[in-house]
Specification:
Elements (H helix, E strand, L loop, with lengths): L2 H24 L1 E5 L5 E5 L8 H22 L1 H10 L5 H10 L3 H14 L1
Antiparallel strand pairs: 1-2
Helix pairs in contact: 2-5
Organism: Histidinibacterium aquaticum
Protein name: DUF3619 family protein
Keywords: Membrane, Transmembrane, Transmembrane helix
Length: 116
């Protein structure tokens, strides 16, 4: 078989093998076409819960908070927290979230130590 014939043949074989793999992993649904031919289609892969994103969002939030804490410094950070209005529920929630917690301080210390 020449190379010009072999390449399309190998592509078709890969496509068929991929379809068989999908059918074996996720199951299949047979369907009847208009002309009476039974065609087996692989089921779509079930979407899983995004555990990685659920873990990554808080880690990035802590990293951002630590970066801001490191950039502003502890004194400026405390001044900005004190400037938030304790009567406003949004400011109160912001002050609670922005308190320098141990995780933020540890990340800021590690970044500062790595930065020189």
């Amino acid at each position: 078989m020449s190379d010009t014939q072999r390449r399309p043949f190998e592509q078709r074989v890969k496509r068929i093998e991929k379809r068989h793999r999908q059918i074996n992993e996720y199951g299949a649904d047979p369907r009847l076409t208009r002309d009476g031919l039974i065609v087996v289609k692989a089921r779509r892969r079930m979407r899983r819960f995004p555990w990685r994103a659920l873990l990554l969002v808080p880690l990035l939030a802590f990293a951002l908070k630590a970066g801001l804490y490191l950039h502003l410094g502890p004194e400026d950070w405390a001044e900005r927290l004190a400037a938030l209005d304790p009567e406003d529920p949004v400011d109160r929630a912001g002050a609670f979230v922005l308190q320098p917690d141990p995780a933020t301080l540890w990340i800021a210390e590690q970044v500062d130590r790595a930065g020189g």
